[in-house]
Design a protein that fits this description.
The complex is a heterodimer of chains A (262) and B (472). By secondary structure, chain A is of the alpha/beta class. Chain A has helices spanning 20-33, 49-54, 76-93, 109-114, 130-142, 159-171, and strands spanning 43-44, 60-61, 65-70, 98-102, 122-126, 148-152, 175-179, 192-199, 215-223, 229-235, 242-244. Chain A has a domain at 54-199 and 211-247: 3-Layer(aba) Sandwich (Rossmann fold), CATH 3.40.50.300. In chain A, strand 6 (148-152), helix 6 (159-171) and strand 7 (175-179) form a beta-alpha-beta unit. Chain B has three domains: 34-196, no CATH class; 214-337, Dna Ligase, domain 1 (2-Layer Sandwich); 384-471, no CATH class. In chain B, strand 6 and strand 7 form a beta hairpin. The N and C termini of chain B lie far apart (78 Å). Classes of the chains: A alpha/beta (262), B alpha+beta (472).
Chain lengths: 262, 472
């Protein structure tokens, strides 16, 4: 993994609540970069202030194509976790079912329900070939009335393919291309591309050997109208909220329950 | 002998005689082994084919059965009500039917009459120049009265007894007093009489339930190009949709039947997640699968019929137009996906009350989700549960502890954190399987896995480790 160990944000992103003129200006620049085609998209704030501040529209654009890639073949769990965190936020504000296509979607419904993501809203499709998966994904992206469409893909999207899917999403529904096997990324027209790896958790206070809330190294590799960035994030399993991992708590040698002034 | 052709009958031979006797009288007799199962299948295929003329087609298997054979008198009934005008009248329809059956290699006689019994009698016993008899309503009674009593579908013993009594024509019987006839020959005789004159109803048992709605197109020269077929399907969808719209009905299942020039019938059935009347939605699904119909030498009749129609009730039409449109879009998506991948590969998830993780969710049709689904969320479960647990090599320092290391898919993971074991016993009504323990563990890089141990070392079993899921 080529992530620096505790590099936690931040570039020159403004703090939350920054000058609205700056936001407008950023949107304007984004519009110019897009060639005016799509205008300002509807945006879903991720709930992580530093992340929203970094993203050009202060959140994740809806009705666009996003790509979430595992940072290696063993990072499937982390990549899926990050995707589900985003998806459950999308499902909270967008009505309708979610299309999920994959070779063999191995989603475990009770675990999704525990994340606050209603399994009854899922339409699962088993598609054996990549062509079939892309076909189903595109059909889903074109469909109004879905909350989102997700495809577990095995190959990187190419430029033409991603452009086609992005256009479909703009008229239909938010899309997530998920690559759990990791692998390279080709030049593509996706709105954002995220690369996710696991990071060691901090044990719960009552069990120093136990497994704590999940932490991920989240790298934004590509962002239309914005810049790359990377963050160390933690998901609160109890509330489902994403947050930046408190930097000092990340030291593995820190005694459990220690309090750090800072 | 089960059946005879016309030539053999003219020589005085009859079904039921032995082959040896017949050969003694007619040495040049050509005999073929009977195949009553094959005859039955051929008759069914013919009934399938005949639905191009009318939706209700019934088999007449009983005729001329000797020793279980179907015989040469087997027939079909077609309920031609409301169909003849498509062919230019009853006579034209009969001629068309007869010519086409002949082209398929069968000799046939056709009669069009008011009841199943009278058409049966006229087809077999009336003199007809072209092999087609049409009984005009006002003349039918008289035509029937002139036929031999054999035309009544009575047991052979009854027929011959009637002949001996001098009751040779159906008209003779109709004029005779009823009570003695019933006393002597039983109730069947007067029932047949009433049926042939249309005094009692004789229901037909159709080979396939008749559709509520049906649209039909004819191509006299046949079409074989898939694009032409698709175009035909689009026009059929529009016509069917018009009928559905007028009746305020939607369809859940439709069937496209392609009647080929060679007598074969290709069928394509399509189901919908929600009742549909929109021609565009019907057509899109047909178009995706039109390749499944083999046009062979050409398709000359195409019929689109509803297999399951139901009223479009108010609850299926949400008040807000947008929501309805969006819902239709999603239902249309499900239909297209099911059309391409099959209904079992497009599904939703429903809770099943089982504490075994792999059994807890069950598949169900998509979009059938209920608000009252209750999921067990108390226990930590991996977001990704592998269909098949994958064996891992694990090294546990103490018998009841999580492993210190394990190797999965060729890579070694050092376990730095683990939750206490969760024991899951197999459901008590299933025996054999050993008790399992599950551990949520985290490796040195923060990856989280659900490890499973089968078997208890305290019982002297050698534990087997596997990886059953991935945590976020």
């Amino acid at each position: 993994m080529n992530f620096p160990m505790t590099q936690i944000l931040s570039f020159s992103s403004p703090a939350p609540g920054a000058d609205p003129r700056l936001t407008d200006l950023r949107a304007e620049i984004g519009r110019i970069e897009r060639g005016c085609a799509a205008g300002i998209p509807a945006v879903l704030p991720t709930g992580v202030a530093a992340l929203d501040g970094h993203l050009p529209f202060r959140g994740l654009p809806l009705k666009r194509l996003h790509e979430v890639v595992a940072a290696g073949e063993r990072e499937a769990g982390a990549a899926l976790g990050f995707l589900l965190a985003l998806l459950s936020r999308v499902m909270r504000i967008e009505a309708g079912p979610v299309l999920w296509c994959g070779r063999r979607p191995e989603l475990h419904a009770p675990a999704l329900a525990a994340l606050g993501l209603d399994p009854a809203r899922l339409i699962l499709v088993r598609a054996r070939t990549e062509t079939d998966r892309l076909w189903a994904f595109e059909e889903g992206l074109r469909t109004k009335g879905l909350a989102a469409a997700v495809a577990e893909l095995e190959k990187p999207l190419d430029l033409a393919g991603s452009r086609r899917l992005q256009l479909a999403a703009e008229k239909g529904t938010t899309g997530f291309a998920l690559r759990l096997d990791g692998g390279e990324a080709a030049a593509s027209a996706v709105e954002t591309r995220w690369r996710i790896a696991a990071a060691p958790s901090v044990p719960p206070a009552d069990d120093p050997d136990g497994v704590g809330d999940p932490r991920w190294r989240v790298a934004l590799e590509r962002c239309r109208g914005g810049r790359p960035g990377h963050w160390l994030m933690e998901k609160n399993d109890a509330t489902g909220d994403l947050a930046l991992a408190p930097a000092l708590r990340d030291r593995p040698d820190l005694p459990a329950g220690a309090r750090v002034a800072g | 002998m089960v059946a005879l052709d016309r030539g053999a009958t003219l020589l005085g031979l009859a079904p039921g005689e032995s082959v040896a006797d017949a050969r003694a009288r007619v040495p040049e007799l050509h005999v073929a082994a009977s195949d009553s199962a094959g005859d039955g299948r051929a008759l069914e295929a013919l009934a399938d084919w005949a639905q191009r003329y009318a939706p209700v087609v019934a088999l007449d298997r009983q005729s001329a059965t000797v020793a279980g054979g179907i015989g040469g008198d087997a027939g079909l009934w077609l309920d031609a009500t409301g169909c003849a005008h498509l062919f230019g009248g009853e006579e034209a329809m009969g001629l068309d039917l007869r010519h086409r059956i002949e082209r398929l290699g069968f000799a046939a006689r056709v009669a069009v009459a008011a009841t199943p019994a009278s058409s049966w009698a006229l087809a077999r016993y009336a003199d007809a120049a072209e092999g087609v008899t049409v009984a005009e309503p006002e003349a039918e009674r008289e035509m029937i009265a002139g036929l031999a009593v054999a035309a009544l579908r009575l047991p052979a013993v009854v027929t011959s007894a009637l002949m001996r009594l001098g009751l040779k024509r159906i008209g003779d019987l109709a004029a005779a007093p009823r009570a003695p006839l019933v006393a002597r020959f039983g109730e069947v005789l007067v029932r047949r009489l009433d049926q042939v004159f249309g005094l009692v109803e004789e229901p037909l048992a159709p080979v396939r339930p008749p559709p509520s709605f049906r649209a039909r197109l004819v191509f006299p020269d046949g079409i074989g190009n898939p694009d032409d077929l698709a175009l035909a399907a689009r026009r059929l969808c529009e016509r069917l949709s018009g009928q559905l719209d007028r009746a305020q009905q939607g369809v859940r299942r439709i069937e496209l039947a392609a009647y080929r020039l060679d007598g074969e019938v290709g069928r394509l059935t399509i189901g919908f997640a929600r009742p549909v009347w929109d021609p565009e939605r019907m057509f899109r699904l047909i178009r995706d699968r039109i390749g499944q119909i083999d046009p062979g030498p050409g398709v000359e009749v195409a019929i689109l019929s509803t297999l399951a129609a139901e009223p479009l009730i108010a609850t299926q039409m949400p008040l807000i137009a947008d929501a309805r449109e969006a819902g239709d879009d999603v239902a249309g998506l499900v239909d297209r996906l099911a059309g391409r991948f099959g209904e079992t590969d497009v599904h939703g998830l429903a809770p099943l009350d089982s504490h075994l993780p792999e059994r807890a969710p069950r598949r169900r049709a998509p979009l059938k989700g209920a608000r009252k689904d209750v999921w067990q969320t108390r226990r930590r479960r991996p977001q990704r549960l592998l269909d098949q647990p994958e064996p891992v090599e694990a090294l546990a320092l103490l018998p009841d502890h999580p492993p210190a290391r394990f190797r999965w898919r060729g890579r070694s993971h050092r376990v730095v954190r683990a939750d206490p074991a969760e024991r899951i016993a197999d459901e008590w009504w299933r025996e054999q399987a050993p008790t399992r323990d599950y551990f949520r563990v985290e490796d040195e890089d923060g990856r989280r896995f659900w490890l499973r141990r089968d078997g208890l070392s305290e019982k002297g079993e050698t534990p087997a480790w596997s990886l059953h899921g991935l945590f976020a």
